[in-house]
Amino acid sequence: MRNFKSITVFIGILIFGFAIAPSAGLTGTPSGLTKDKVEFTPGEDSGFYYTIKKGDTLWDLSQKFYNSQWDWPGLWEMNDEIKNPHWIYPGRKIRIFLKEQAKLKPIIVPVKKVEKTVVSKKIKPSFAYSEMDYVGFIKKKKQVSKGKVIKEQDGHLLMNKNDIIYIKPSGKGTLIPGKIYHVFTATPIKEKIHKGIFEGVRHMIKAEIKILEHKTNYAVALITRGYRTVYEGDLIMDYYDRNETLTVEDNPKTIDARIISSEDKHLMINDYIIAFIDVGKSQVKPGQIYTVLRTNQLVDHSLWKKKAKNQIKLDNLKSGKLIVLHTEDIASTVMIMSSGYAIHPNDIVN
């Protein structure tokens, strides 16, 4: 399972109601903050300790200190002693890092009978995910394969990082020595979503490889990074480079979408799980945040057939939030940011 603490969330401008000393620490100590010495990188970081109070959550503290609720994964990453982000205990101290920001060039706005007014540019919050290059995706058609794995050098059936592998080229492109490629699998999917059938091809990225040499009828490669175990028959495609940092859009235009499945086909989908939704790049874009809803239905325990006029429609339950990571033609890859209830395939996204 991936380690979510590799996620780092940045915020453009941090606004606080107190002054920060040039070195680690504070000029004053607001309520809840302490002057404990902090091991910050000289010239790069500044910050302080905050003592957790009853009722505090990382979500709330992120809003308080970084002016964005969505910065909480970065706050978690800064504090290794927090094993579970849902459990932080009153009385314990956590570190609040304040990265020094490069000064913005001010915009000078002339105003009648007033000398000058300085207005700062607003920087939108961003979300960075270091594992972006190997999240799975769904396309209408199978990605073109440049070859397939035929053997590991020493005959291992399970292939991972640092293994030497042999590849049979497909003839649909050249495997160039020194270049990086992805190992992947492609599986057709057919799911009943909402009122119709969703069909596509599910792609899973398993590893990065570097071509070492190209022989007459095969290529030799080194697995440089392994995300999932590689097997004989797995396919090769060009390296799928994506931007790891996304500009966050918290209130995009409403969509009518459904959860297709999780990347690893979990029956229940919870926090930090990668999943797919049934709308593509024409309707959504990376960085947008949406709400996940679960249909709230009444169960009829009577023996009589329920009549439409007597049905009561309840409001849908808010199950959680997700952020769009990557988009393709018919579907998009998302990450579940938070969940109050277990999320399931066919749940509503809007």
Task: Itemize the secondary structure elements and their pairings.
Layout: E1 7-10, E2 33-34, E3 45-51, H1 58-66, H2 72-78, E4 93-99, E5 107-111, E6 114-119, E7 126-129, E8 137-139, E9 147-152, E10 164-169, E11 180-193, E12 196-214, E13 219-226, E14 235-238, E15 245-247, E16 257-262, E17 274-277, E18 289-294, E19 317-327, E20 332-339, E21 348-349
Antiparallel strand pairs: 1-7, 2-3, 3-4, 5-6, 7-15, 8-12, 9-10, 9-14, 10-13, 11-12, 11-14, 12-13, 16-17, 16-21, 17-20, 18-19, 18-21, 19-20
Helix pairs in contact: 1-2
Describe, in plain words, how this protein is organized in 3D.
- With 350 residues, the chain is mostly beta strands.
- The protein has 3 domains: 96 residues, LysM domain (Membrane-bound Lytic Murein Transglycosylase D, Chain A); 107 residues, no CATH class; 102 residues, Thrombin, subunit H, CATH 2.40.10.410.
- It is built from 2 helices and 21 strands.
- A hairpin with a 4-residue loop joins strand 19 and strand 20.
- The longest helix is centred in the N-terminal third of the chain and has 9 residues.
